[in-house]
Structure formats: structure tokens, C-alpha cells
Amino acid sequence: MAIKIIGESLHNMPWEDKPKGCKDPVWRYSGNPIIQRNQTKRSNSIFNSAVVPFEGKYAGVFRCDSKSISMDI
């Protein structure tokens, strides 16, 4: 199957090849979790959701659940 991506090229995009035997369309980064679930005093859990281009570099997008389990980005 050929895949065509329409859009601008993203140079130096962080990427890890698909693990052998993985049949999923997306896969988990082997270095996860990048930030531990209890890394801050005010969060119950932290989810690393994405990497996005930002000002010529890349930024992580994280969801943090507070101790009261309110979900904020």
C-alpha cells in the first residue's frame, strides 16, 4: 500500500521506526513515559499526547489530570 502525505515537509521530526511485529497504525515510543505520572505535586497523572511543530522546533502536548481529576490541557 502506498501512502501519500499532502503537506509541508517537517524537518528533523522526532521519529522512531515501527517495532518488529507491530501491526498497529501507530505505536508507542519506547522511551515513554517521557514525564512520569506523579512528576508534579498538583497532578494525579500526565499523558504525553503529541509532538507539534512550534517556532521552528517541536513542542510536546501533554494532558494533566489534577488531584481532583479535572482534565486540563
Q: How would you describe the overall organization of this protein?
A:
The protein is mainly beta. A hairpin with a 2-residue loop joins strand 1 and strand 2.
Catalogue the unreliable spans: none
Strand ordering within the main sheet: 1-2-3
From the helix content, strand content and strand pairing, which structural class follows?
Answer: mainly beta
Number of helices, counting only DSSP H or I runs of 4 residues or more: 0
Largest sheet properties: 3 strands, antiparallel
Q: State the separation between the terminal residues, measured CA to CA.
A: 36 Å
**Rg on CA atoms, Å:** 16 Å
H-E string: EEE
Which outline best applies? extended
Count all strands and give the number.
3
Which bin fits the share of residues in helices? under 10%
Mean pLDDT: 83
Q: What fraction of the residues are assigned to beta strands by DSSP? A: 25-35%
List its traits.
0% helix, 73 residues, 3-stranded antiparallel beta sheet, extended, mainly beta, 3 strands
Set down the secondary structure blueprint:
Layout (H helix, E strand, L loop, with lengths): L42 E12 L2 E10 L4 E2 L1
Antiparallel strand pairs: 1-2, 2-3
Tell me briefly what this model is:
This protein is an all-beta fold and 73 residues long.
